[in-house]
UniProtKB/TrEMBL annotation:
Domain of life from the UniProt record: Eukaryota
Keyword Manganese: no
Main location, first listed in the record: nucleus
InterPro entries, per database record: SOX/SOX-like_TF
Lineage: Eukaryota, Metazoa, Chordata, Craniata, Vertebrata
Stated name of the protein: Transcription factor SOX-5
Location(s) in or outside the cell: Nucleus
Coiled-coil stretches noted in the UniProt entry, renumbered to this chain: 8-64, 88-115
UniProt organism field: Tupaia chinensis
Amino acid sequence: MKGTPESLAEKERQLMGMINQLTSLREQLLAAHDEQKKLAASQIEKQRQQMELAKQQQEQAFKNKLSRCLLTNTYSLKIETCSYLNDHDAVTKAIQEARQMKEQLRREQQVLDGKVAVVNSLGLNNCRTEKSAKHEMTVTNVDLM
């Protein structure tokens, strides 16, 4: 059963409106995905810079302590041994802190990867829906001829 030309024209207008809405939504999702990727890259770079700064500060602290240790070398073997043990403790603590920071970055990267995957899947699903809608519209137009 075929509809009147007016009802077919109305249906076509409605379909075009839906296609336009889907296209707009797709563009919004793609823009959000791009923004999410930029934000993730920015956060990773900031964390990398923070880790590098912390590493430099720890190295400097170690150098300062080592310099002090060398200056006290002339006093006695006991003082030198104590200073060395203190420096060793500081280095061990710095290594532990660096490992903790690395693990924290790994966890945050996993969270960001998960978010990007969700945004990617939303973008792909919308692309499929849009292609399917265009295909159905083409098939409908062919049937109407």
